[in-house]
Design brief:
The protein is mostly helical. Helices cover about 60% and strands about 10% of the residues.
Amino acid sequence: MPIGYYLKKADNLLTAGIHQIHKEFGISRLHWQAMHFMHESGSLNPEKLKKVLKEFAEPDELDTVLADLMSRGWIFQNKRLIMNSPNKRN
């Protein structure tokens, strides 16, 4: 088999595994992408997050994801989006 076959097979297996992990937490890949970027940034303006993730989601889709994360208490917004980390000291 050509190398492309094995690369695609590996990609499919990784994607399926990641999807299963997200499913166990009741989140989507977009949820994870938003939380990961917020974690890396510390805090950020929602518009910057929309700009960064524009290739992955429309602004209204990201608004829905952010509202869901806020309703879970995983993030909060006080002018900027901030990860809710009880173990993190400010």
